[in-house]
C-alpha cells in the first residue's frame, strides 16, 4: 500500500499549490490600529515569502505573535499567515508541523468571522491530503465528505472527489474510490482535472492488480497532461504521472527521466517530491539486484530530508528508504549495517505512526510493521550464532516492543492531553460522551443510526479542535527502556507470534537476554486447544483427569517460559496475538506456577515508560455494584456479600444502583482512589463491550472519562476478553482503562465463579493492605485460596481467570474507622448509666403514690 505515493503526490500538487496572496484592505486611521496592521502584515509576508526562516523552528516564529487580531483586515492577514506556514512547512517535508498549522487555520475559520476566498482550496484539500500523508486516512475521508456536503460548485466538487478517491484508495476502500472517480469523470471540470482523475483511477486498478486497466488510465492521464500548457505545479503533476508510468512498467529509466526533469526545473525546491522519486528508483533497482545503484538511490532519498546523523523524520518515505538500505545490506551480507538500519527504520516508523489519530489506520499500520519485524527476526534466525549475541537479542527485544501497543500508547497520551484541554475541547468530549450514552441506551435501529451519523460529525470537529499535534511528545529511548527491565526480583518474557503461528520468545533475566523461536506452530495450536479444553464453560475436564492437565501444562511451560526454573518471583509478560487471555500462572512446573510466581501482563514493555506510576498511600475504595438484574440476565448472588466484606475492613464508598448516575460515576474515576466494579459485563461482537450497572456504560463512553484512579478491579465476567486487535491485545473493558492511563487493572478472562470471586476479592484486599503491591497481593490471594481449597476447588478454572495487567504501582489502603462503633458503645453505656438512677427515682415515686392511695382507701 505504501507504494501508492505517486497518485497521492499528483493529488497533493493539485490541491496544495501555493495559496493566492489575499488582497489588502485599507488600513485603519487610528495609530494603534496601524501598528497592529503592521504586525499581522509582517507575519503574513514572512510566512509567504521566507519559509526557510522558520522551517526548522516554526513555533518560535509563530509565538512572536502575542497580540490578537481585531479588525477584519488583521484577521485575514493572520489567517493567511497560518495557511502560508502550513504550505511552507509542507514544501520542506515537515508533515507534523504542516498539519498543525493547517489545523490552526481551519479552527480559526470555524471560530472567527474572517474572509477567505476558497476554504476548500486553501485549507480543506491540503489538510485532508496531509492526513493521507501521515496515513490518517479515516480523518481525511471524514473531512472531505463534510466539505462535499457543503460545496455546490461543480469545479470544486470534481477536485474534492479526486481527493476523496485517494483517501479511499489508501484506506483500502477500492470500490468506493472507483465510484467517486467515475462520478467525477462523467462531468469533467477541465483537461487537467481529467488527467488527475485518470491517474488516480490507474492507481486504484494497480492496487487491484489489474495492470491492463491501470496502464490504460495512466496513459490517458499523460495524454491530457501533454495537451496542456505545463508550468509550475502542473508540470510537477505531469512528472509525477511519468514516474507512475515507470512504476507500472517497472522501468527505472522512466523514473530516472522524471528525476532529471524535476531537478532541472526545480533545482532548489520540491525536495520531498524528489525523495519520493528516488525512493521508487531505489526499489526498482533493488528488484533488479543492482545493489550499489539502489543503495545510492536510497542515500539520495535520505539526503533530500537533510537529517544530521541518526535523525528521525516523521515521514514514511524516510522510513521506507531506511528499510531499503537495511535490505540491501542484508543482500550484501553486511549484517551490522543491516541491523542498524532495521532498528533505525522501526524507531522512525514508531514515531511517525503516532501522528495517526484514527484507530482503524493505526491498526492497519500495525500489520505493516509486523512484516518488518518478521524480516528482522528471519535475518537473526538464519545467521548462525547471531541469536546468541546479547547486543543483537537486546536490539531485537527493543524493536519487537516498539512494534506493539502503538494505538494504546497514542490513546494514553491523548488522554493526558485532554486533562489540560481547552474548554472547547472539553465541551466536545462531553458531547461525544453523551451521544455514546444515548447510542448505548437506544433500542430503535433508526435512532442508533441517526445518533451514529451525528457522532461522526462531532468526532471530526473534536479531532480538529483538540490540538493533538501541538502536544505530541513520543520519544522513547532505548537506554531508558532497558533500564526498566532491571527491576529487582523480576524476569521478563516478550512474545512475537509469526504469520505461520510459530512464536519468538525473548527472556530477560539476571543472567541477561536469551532468544528462542519455536520450530513448529505446535505450541500455539496446543495452547489454543488447551485453553478451549480447560478454560471454557465448564470445570469438568480438569476434574476428570488432573494428571493429563498437568502433563499438557508442563509441556507448554517448557515451550513458552524457557529457563523458568531460575526465574525470579515476579514475571512480567509482554503478550501478542492469541496469547492474550491465556492464564500463564495456571501452567505447571512440578506445581502450578502461581505457587512460585506472580504474573503481570502487558501489551508492551514500553508501558513502563508511558503509564504513570500512580502511588497512593491511603487509598479509599469506591465500590460500584449491582446485584439484581432483569431477565434474561441472572442475579449476582455474591455481590452484596463482596461489598459488605470490603466495606467492613476498609474505608469504602458504596454506590449502589439507586445512586448511580452519569455525574456520580464519572466523579469516582476522577478521584485518586481504587475503583471496584461488581456488575455484569456484556460482550457483543458487533458493538463495544459494556458494564451494566444502573445504566449501561460502554468502552466508548469510558474513553472520554477523566481518570486518576491508581487501580480498577473489575469483579465481573469476561472483562479481560474481547475482539483481537493487531499488535494491540483485545478490545476489552480492561484495555480501555489502560488507555486512560490507569497503571493497574484486575480483570477476568472467562466466567467468574461466585464463591471463588468472593474469596479471592476478600483475600486480595487483605494482602494489598499488607504489601501495598497489587501484583503480589493477587498472587498471594491465589496461593492462600489454593492452600485452603479441597482438590476439586484447586481446579484452575475457578481461580486462574482473575489476572493482573499493569506496571506494578504501590497502593496503600485506608482502613475503615472503628470510631462510629466506639461512639455508639459509649452513647449506649451513657444512656444506661443515666437512666439507672432516673428509673430508681421514678419507681420510688410510684411506690410512695401507691402507699398514699392505699391509706386513703383504708
In summary, what is this structure?
InterPro entries: CHAT_dom, TPR-like_helical_dom_sf, TPR_rpt. The protein is 58% helix and 10% strand. With 858 residues, the chain is α/β, with parallel strands linked by helices.
Structural class: alpha/beta
Low-confidence stretches: 23-31, 849-858
Instruction: Report the sheet-strand fraction.
Output: 5-15%
Would you tell me the overall average pLDDT?
A: 89
Query: What gyration radius follows from the Cα positions, in whole Å?
Result: 33 Å
User: Per the principal axes of the C-alpha atoms, what is the gross shape?
Assistant: globular
Trace the largest sheet across and list its strands. 8-7-9-13-16-17
CATH topology of one domain: Rossmann fold
Q: Which bin fits the share of residues in helices?
A: 55-70%
CATH class assignment of one domain: Alpha Beta
| Assembly annotation | single chain
CATH architecture title of one domain: 3-Layer(aba) Sandwich
Number of strands: 18
Q: What distance separates the N and C termini? A: 119 Å
Number of helices: 35
What profile does the largest beta sheet have?
6 strands, mixed
Amino acid at each position: 500500500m505504501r507504494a501508492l505515493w505517486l497518485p497521492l503526490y499528483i493529488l497533493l500538487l493539485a490541491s496544495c499549490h501555493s495559496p493566492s496572496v489575499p488582497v489588502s484592505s485599507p488600513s485603519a486611521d487610528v495609530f494603534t490600529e496601524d501598528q497592529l496592521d503592521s504586525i499581522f502584515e509582517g507575519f503574513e509576508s514572512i510566512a509567504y515569502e521566507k519559509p526557510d526562516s522558520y522551517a526548522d523552528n516554526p513555533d518560535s516564529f509563530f509565538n512572536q505573535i502575542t497580540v490578537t487580531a481585531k479588525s477584519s483586515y488583521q484577521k485575514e492577514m493572520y489567517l493567511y499567515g497560518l495557511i502560508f506556514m502550513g504550505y511552507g512547512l509542507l514544501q520542506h517535508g515537515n508533515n507534523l508541523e504542516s498539519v498543525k498549522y493547517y489545523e490552526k487555520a481551519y479552527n480559526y475559520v470555524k471560530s472567527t468571522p474572517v474572509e477567505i476566498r476558497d476554504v476548500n482550496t486553501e485549507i480543506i484539500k491540503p489538510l485532508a491530503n496531509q492526513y493521507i500523508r501521515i496515513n490518517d486516512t479515516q480523518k481525511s475521508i471524514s473531512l472531505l465528505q463534510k466539505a462535499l456536503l457543503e460545496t455546490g460548485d461543480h469545479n470544486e466538487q470534481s477536485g474534492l472527489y479526486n481527493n476523496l478517491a485517494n483517501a479511499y484508495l489508501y484506506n483500502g476502500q477500492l470500490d468506493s474510490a472507483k465510484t467517486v472517480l467515475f462520478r467525477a469523470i462523467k462531468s469533467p471540470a477541465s483537461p487537467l482535472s481529467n488527467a488527475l482523475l485518470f491517474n488516480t483511477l490507474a492507481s486504484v486498478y494497480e492496487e487491484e492488480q489489474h495492470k491492463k486497466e491501470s496502464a490504460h488510465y495512466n496513459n490517458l492521464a499523460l495524454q491530457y497532461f501533454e495537451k496542456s500548457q505545463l508550468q509550475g505545479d502542473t508540470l510537477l503533476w505531469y512528472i509525477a504521472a511519468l514516474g507512475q508510468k515507470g512504476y507500472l512498467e517497472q522501468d527505472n529509466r522512466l523514473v530516472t527521466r522524471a528525476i532529471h526533469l524535476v531537478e532541472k526545473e526545480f533545482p532548489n525546491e520540491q525536495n520531498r517530491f524528489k525523495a519520493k522519486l528516488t525512493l521508487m528508483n531505489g526499489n526498482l533497482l533493488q528488484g533488479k539486484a543492482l545493489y550499489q545503484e539502489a543503495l545510492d538511490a536510497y542515500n539520495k532519498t535520505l539526503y533530500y530530508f537533510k537529517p544530521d546523523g541518526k535523525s528521525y523524520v516523521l515521514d514514511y518515505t524516510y522510513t521506507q528508504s531506511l528499510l531499503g538500505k537495511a535490505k540491501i545490506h542484508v543482500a550484501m551480507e553486511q549484517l551490522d549495517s543491516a541491523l542498524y538500519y532495521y532498528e533505525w527504520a522501526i524507531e522512525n516508523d514508531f514515531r511517525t505512526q503516532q501522528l495517526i489519530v484514527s484507530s482503524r489506520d493505526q491498526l492497519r499500520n500495525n500489520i505493516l510493521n509486523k512484516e518488518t519485524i518478521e524480516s528482522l527476526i528471519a535475518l537473526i534466525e538464519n545467521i548462525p550464532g547471531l541469536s546468541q549475541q546479547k547486543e543483537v537479542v537486546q536490539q531485537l527485544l527493543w524493536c519487537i516492543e516498539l512494534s506493539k501497543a502503538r494505538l494504546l500508547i497514542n490513546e494514553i497520551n491523548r488522554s493526558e492531553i485532554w486533562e489540560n484541554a481547552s474548554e472547547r475541547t472539553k465541551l466536545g468530549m462531553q458531547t461525544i460522551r453523551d451521544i455514546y450514552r444515548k447510542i448505548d441506551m437506544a433500542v430503535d435501529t433508526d435512532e442508533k443510526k441517526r445518533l451514529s451519523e451525528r457522532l461522526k460529525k462531532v468526532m471530526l470537529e473534536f479531532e480538529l479542535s483538540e490540538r493533538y499535534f501541538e502536544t505530541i511528545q513520543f520519544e522513547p529511548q532505548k537506554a531508558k527502556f532497558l533500564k526498566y527491565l532491571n527491576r529487582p526480583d523480576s524476569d521478563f518474557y516478550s512474545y512475537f507470534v509469526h504469520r505461520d503461528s510459530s512464536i519468538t520468545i525473548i527472556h530477560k533475566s539476571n543472567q541477561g537476554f536469551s532468544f528462542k523461536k519455536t520450530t513448529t506452530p505446535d505450541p500455539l495450536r496446543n495452547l489454543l486447544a488447551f485453553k478451549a479444553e480447560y478454560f471454557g464453560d465448564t470445570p469438568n475436564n480438569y476434574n476428570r483427569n488432573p494428571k493429563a492437565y498437568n502433563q499438557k501444562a508442563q509441556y507448554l511451560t517448557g515451550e513458552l517460559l524457557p529457563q523458568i526454573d531460575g526465574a525470579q518471583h515476579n514475571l512480567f509478560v509482554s503478550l501478542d496475538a492469541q496469547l492474550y487471555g491465556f492464564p500463564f500462572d495456571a501452567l505447571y512446573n512440578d506445581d502450578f506456577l502461581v505457587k512460585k510466581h506472580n504474573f503481570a501482563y502487558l501489551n508492551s514493555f514500553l508501558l513502563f515508560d508511558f503509564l504513570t506510576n500512580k502511588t497512593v498511600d491511603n487509598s479509599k475504595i469506591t465500590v460500584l455494584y449491582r446485584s439484581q438484574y432483569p431477565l434474561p440476565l441472572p442475579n449476582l448472588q455474591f455481590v452484596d456479600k463482596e461489598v459488605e466484606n470490603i466495606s467492613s475492613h476498609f474505608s469504602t464508598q458504596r454506590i449502589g444502583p439507586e445512586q448511580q448516575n452519569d455525574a456520580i460515576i464519572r466523579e469516582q474515576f476522577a478521584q485518586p482512589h481504587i475503583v471496584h466494579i461488581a456488575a455484569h459485563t456484556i460482550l457483543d461482537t458487533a458493538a463495544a463491550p459494556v458494564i451494566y450497572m444502573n445504566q449501561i456504560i460502554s468502552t466508548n463512553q469510558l474513553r472520554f472519562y477523566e481518570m486518576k484512579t491508581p487501580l480498577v478491579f473489575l469483579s465481573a465476567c469476561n472483562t479481560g476478553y474481547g475482539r483481537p486487535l493487531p499488535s494491540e491485545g483485545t478490545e476489552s473493558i480492561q484495555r480501555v482503562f489502560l488507555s486512560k492511563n490507569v497503571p493497574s487493572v484486575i480483570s477476568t478472562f472467562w466466567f467468574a465463579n461466585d464463591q471463588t470471586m468472593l474469596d479471592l476479592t476478600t483475600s486480595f484486599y487483605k494482602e494489598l493492605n499488607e504489601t501495598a503491591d497489587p501484583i503480589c497481593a493477587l498472587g498471594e490471594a491465589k496461593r492462600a485460596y489454593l492452600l485452603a481449597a479441597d482438590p476439586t476447588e484447586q481446579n484452575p478454572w475457578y481461580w486462574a481467570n482473575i489476572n493482573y495487567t499493569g506496571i506494578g504501582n504501590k497502593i496503600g489502603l485506608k482502613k475503615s474507622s472503628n470510631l462510629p462503633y466506639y461512639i455508639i458503645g459509649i452513647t449506649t453505656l451513657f444512656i444506661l448509666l443515666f437512666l439507672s438512677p432516673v428509673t430508681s427515682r421514678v419507681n420510688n415515686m410510684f411506690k410512695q403514690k401507691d402507699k398514699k392511695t392505699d391509706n386513703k382507701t383504708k
